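Why should sequence recovery work at all? Because a backbone constrains its sequence more than one might expect. Tight turns favour small or flexible residues, buried strands favour hydrophobic ones, and helices have their own preferences. The token representation captures these environments compactly. In the example below, the structure is given first.
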């Protein structure tokens, strides 16, 4: 019997051009150097019999209204983008929330059959005492957090505390750092074990230069999270950062959709 293998698709759905190192990094090398952000959700599809017909989504993105309010360039709905890879919203069985920041945690009602996987620490953080303080609640959206609580009451949330299995060979690992309950996802593919870091590393620059993004809960946990990403991934190119436009540039794309990126294929150098 062989091991389960998956395909991974990054669906790019928004962009933020007007950012530089000075606005993204605590310790910029060059304050004025441009450092735009892309916004993605990720879809993991079973690619062999051992993986079954699994369809897993990592993060759910934000909506057009939030994009306008927070001044992001909207490309498409991340849920509508599923059709580019032949996935219907009702096909998604599991949704992993890397964390509950506003740009990762919308659209839950549009995924009618999904179970939502969240770390204990993230739900506690997003609903607890830290949200009394402006700088800590800034990246959260209270309506999204209220939806998450409603889904807990509807028994559609699966909590994790540390490492957990989502599907054969696919695991979450709690890292904390950027948000208190930040988790990463490891996925076996034909090119090796890929780590979907989401905001555990916004850019390859963060992890390779040990240069933290400005928003964080714990610098120690963030740095130790980078070490864990490196241990779990088969190479530095197997770690996929959460907001890096280089991902869109370096990996092959669907011939029919330049905003759908194939992460189970090898990147260019
Ligand atoms: Zn975040
Ligand atoms: Zn983010």
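From this structural description, the recovered sequence reads:
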């Amino acid at each position: 019997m062989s091991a389960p293998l998956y395909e991974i698709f990054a669906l790019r759905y928004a962009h933020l051009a007007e950012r530089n190192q000075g606005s993204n990094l605590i310790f910029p090398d060059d304050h004025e150097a441009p450092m735009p952000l892309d916004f993605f959700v990720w879809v993991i599809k079973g690619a062999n019999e051992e993986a079954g017909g699994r369809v897993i989504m990592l993060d759910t993105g934000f909506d057009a209204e939030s994009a306008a309010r927070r001044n992001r360039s909207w490309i498409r709905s991340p849920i509508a983008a599923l059709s580019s890879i032949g996935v219907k919203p009702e096909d998604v069985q599991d949704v992993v929330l890397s964390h509950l920041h506003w740009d990762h945690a919308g659209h839950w009602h549009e995924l009618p059959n999904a179970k939502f996987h969240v770390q204990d620490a993230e739900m506690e953080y997003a609903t607890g005492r830290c949200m009394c303080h402006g700088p800590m609640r800034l990246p959260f959206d209270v309506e999204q957090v209220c939806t998450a609580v409603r889904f807990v009451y509807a028994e559609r949330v699966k909590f994790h505390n540390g490492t957990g299995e989502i599907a054969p060979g696919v695991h979450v690992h709690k890292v904390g750092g950027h948000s208190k309950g930040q988790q990463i996802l490891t996925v076996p593919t034909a090119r090796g074990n890929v780590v979907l870091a989401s905001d555990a590393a916004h850019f390859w620059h963060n992890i390779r230069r040990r240069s933290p993004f400005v928003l964080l809960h714990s610098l120690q946990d963030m740095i130790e999270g980078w070490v864990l990403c490196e241990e779990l991934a088969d190479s530095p190119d197997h770690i996929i950062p959460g907001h890096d436009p280089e991902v869109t540039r370096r990996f092959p794309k669907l011939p029919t959709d330049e905003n759908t990126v194939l992460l189970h294929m090898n990147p260019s150098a």
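A few observations help interpret the result. Residues 99, 101, 139, 178-179, 199 surround zinc ion (ligand 1) (CB under 6 Å).
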